[in-house]
């Protein structure tokens, strides 16, 4: 009996070592492909030649290695990884420009980012930075935000408290302790716990890369929770953990304020998910120089160089399968005509719900394995965005390269629950959470491109059901009642904004509009207007779900990439691309990115 147990353990160790450290396929990070930075292109027409290549059957490359549905970072990132090892990939985007939530749009001369507000973990020579540098051939540049990079504002005007959030592994806790004397132990314990949980993230991609039987073995023997503190803590809510650390209500709020970056109130949030965000920004925050469209702009040429293409206005209406239930291509609607595109591999960055519920034939949707995955996930909360174009420079308007998180009080769970469960007109008058950022203030090229102008992006949450009755109206000509509801949101949010930023007055506003959950459905294909993909509640982080929802779907030749296969946000979707790429290329790309960073760091030391 003992011999059998020893044999099983040895076999398990071999498999774990193989899938954590073993590699046999081609390595997209084998060489440092960074080139000297070229002059930045500001001409919109020139950039659109790359970002807005419209779909035509004649533009589809021959002998494709893969088709990717969706040009968000999870799709584009994977296409770049495959292109770097010589794969010819076609990326299809339903919108009129590529980039997904990394795209920008222009109204009345103002350029707005829709999804990129700040990215962490981008220090020189760190794996995430080196990976992104190589995925853009060194052309994508990043600018650090101010320090403090976040400002947490709590309470009504007559009792408003402000807490600056600083980056830096020592400065972050030091500044918090200045704000909360007597709470030194709580602050130290919180940061220590976040770091410990964050270090356990290594097992999450492994559960998705290793063979299914090994993943299930790790889950059902309980080894996943023993091997990774991330999974051990995943079932505990953020509220529960934080409430054990301190009785101070404002400190609890400051510990949890960033819940808006994944879309779940603290009592429904896994502490493990939250820990990743805290550690992600611990060393600072950055913004892409030239705006978010620079990301796609510098990735697409790499895909094209390998013989692939990124085509927009290319709505995929179904995935093609043969009688053996194997994917062999996609169908694209061009007007009333269906155009079939064949490839040995189909990869969806359209999200698990769009992929399984809209793109599969009914008989394949009904497969128990597909239904099992759908049953484990649910839609995230809808997003609400307000875009302001302002007359005046950042100095004129009191804007900086930072973000504001504004809350009506410190009882986040109660406030958010009351808001989301309220009647829409009443909830619109009292939005409890507001994220405010100025893309123009973060970008050093802005003044050159748009002198004397500024932009603001304001983000919160709103229920899809509040707007659902107008979802079938024409996007630019919805019913008056829809516009009236939007205006209630805009007016109440503007009142808060102008109180916090007194230099911003109504006469400075040259453009303003709101994007609701049904706006998100139209432009980024979010089924329920969500901005973070599938819900990121506590259930999302169970070992069982992460061993089940993997890049390889139950259908041969069909894969998932992006947010829904890993985590939300830019870094999470890109990690989804790395994980999917690991499965497709048969090597651990997460480890390859770390190895590349070590090589670059070593080479830099030799130079110095």
UniProtKB/TrEMBL annotation:
Query: InterPro entries from the entry?
Result: FAD/NAD-bd_sf, Retinol_saturase
Q: Which cofactors are required for activity?
A: NAD(+); FAD; NADP(+)
Record EC number: 1.3.99.23
Transmembrane stretches in the record are: 201-223
Q: Which Gene3D superfamilies does this entry report, sorted A to Z?
A: FAD/NAD(P)-binding domain (3.50.50.60)
Q: If you read the UniProt record, what top EC class would you report for this enzyme, in one word?
A: oxidoreductase
In its UniProt record, a GO molecular function of this protein is: all-trans-retinol 13,14-reductase activity
Q: What is its main location?
A: endoplasmic reticulum
Topology relative to the membrane: Peripheral membrane protein
Q: Which GO terms describe its cellular component?
A: endoplasmic reticulum membrane
Q: Where is this protein found?
A: Endoplasmic reticulum membrane
Q: Which UniProt keywords apply?
A: Endoplasmic reticulum, FAD, Flavoprotein, Lipid metabolism, Membrane, NAD, NADP, Oxidoreductase, Signal, Transmembrane, Transmembrane helix
State the reactions this protein catalyses: all-trans-13,14-dihydroretinol + A = all-trans-retinol + AH2
**Which superkingdom heads the taxonomic lineage of this protein's source?**
Eukaryota
Q: Provide the family line.
A: Belongs to the carotenoid/retinoid oxidoreductase family. CrtISO subfamily.
Q: What is this protein called?
A: All-trans-retinol 13,14-reductase
Lineage, please? Eukaryota, Metazoa, Chordata, Craniata, Vertebrata
């Amino acid at each position: 009996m003992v011999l059998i147990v020893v044999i099983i353990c040895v076999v398990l160790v071999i498999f774990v070592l193989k899938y954590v450290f073993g590699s046999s396929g081609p390595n997209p990070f084998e060489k440092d492909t960074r080139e000297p930075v070229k002059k930045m292109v500001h001409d919109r027409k020139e950039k659109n030649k790359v970002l807005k290549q419209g779909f035509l059957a004649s533009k589809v490359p021959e002998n494709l290695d893969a088709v990717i549905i969706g040009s968000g970072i999870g799709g584009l990132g994977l296409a770049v990884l495959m292109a770097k090892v010589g794969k010819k990939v076609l990326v299809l985007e339903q919108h009129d420009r590529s980039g997904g939530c990394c795209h920008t749009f222009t109204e009345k001369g103002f350029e707005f980012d829709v999804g990129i507000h700040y990215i962490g973990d981008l220090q020189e020579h760190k794996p995430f930075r080196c990976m992104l540098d190589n995925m853009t051939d060194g052309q994508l540049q990043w600018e650090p935000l101010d320090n403090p990079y976040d400002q947490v504002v709590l309470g009504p005007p007559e009792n408003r408290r402000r807490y600056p959030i600083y980056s830096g592994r020592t400065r972050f806790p030091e500044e918090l302790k200045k704000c909360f004397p007597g709470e030194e132990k709580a602050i130290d314990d919180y940061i220590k716990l976040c770091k410990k949980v964050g270090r356990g993230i290594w097992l999450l991609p492994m559960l998705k890369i290793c063979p299914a039987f090994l993943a299930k073995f790790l889950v059902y023997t309980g080894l996943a929770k023993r091997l990774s503190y991330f999974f051990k803590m995943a079932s505990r809510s953020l509220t529960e953990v934080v409430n054990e650390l301190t009785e101070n209500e404002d400190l609890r709020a400051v510990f949890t304020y960033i819940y808006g970056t994944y879309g779940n109130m603290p009592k429904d949030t896994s502490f493990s998910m939250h820990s990743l965000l805290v550690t992600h920004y611990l060393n600072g925050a950055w913004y892409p120089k030239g705006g978010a469209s620079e990301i796609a702009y510098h990735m697409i040429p790499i895909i094209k160089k390998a013989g692939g293409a990124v085509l927009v206005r290319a709505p995929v209406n179904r995935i093609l399968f043969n009688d053996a239930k194997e994917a062999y291509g996609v169908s694209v609607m061009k007007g009333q005509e269906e155009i079939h595109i064949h490839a040995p591999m189909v990869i969806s960055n359209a999200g698990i719900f769009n992929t399984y519920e809209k793109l599969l034939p009914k008989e394949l949707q009904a497969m128990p394995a597909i239904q099992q995955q759908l049953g484990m996930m649910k839609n995230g909360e809808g997003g609400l965005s307000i875009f302001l174009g302002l007359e005046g420079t950042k100095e004129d308007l009191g804007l900086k390269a930072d973000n504001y998180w504004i809350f009506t009080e410190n009882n986040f769970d109660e406030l958010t629950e009351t808001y989301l469960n309220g009647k829409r007109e009443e909830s619109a008058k009292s939005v409890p959470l507001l994220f405010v950022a100025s893309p123009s203030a973060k970008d050093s090229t802005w003044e050159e491109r748009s002198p004397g102008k500024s932009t603001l992006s304001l983000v919160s949450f709103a229920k899809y059901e509040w707007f659902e009755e107008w979802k079938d109206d024409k996007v630019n000509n919805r019913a008056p009642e829809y516009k009236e509801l939007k205006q209630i949101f805009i007016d109440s949010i503007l009142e808060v904004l102008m109180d916090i930023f007194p230099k911003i007055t109504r006469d400075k506003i040259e453009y303003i509009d709101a994007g609701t959950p049904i706006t998100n459905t139209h432009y980024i294909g979010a089924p329920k207007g969500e901005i973070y993909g599938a819900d990121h509640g506590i259930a999302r982080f169970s070992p069982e779900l992460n061993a089940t929802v993997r890049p390889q779907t139950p259908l041969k030749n069909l894969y998932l990439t992006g947010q829904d296969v890993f985590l939300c946000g830019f870094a999470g979707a890109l990690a989804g691309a790395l994980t999917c790429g690991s499965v497709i290329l048969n090597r651990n790309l997460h480890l390859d990115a770390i190895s590349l960073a070590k090589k670059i760091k070593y080479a830099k030391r030799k130079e110095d």
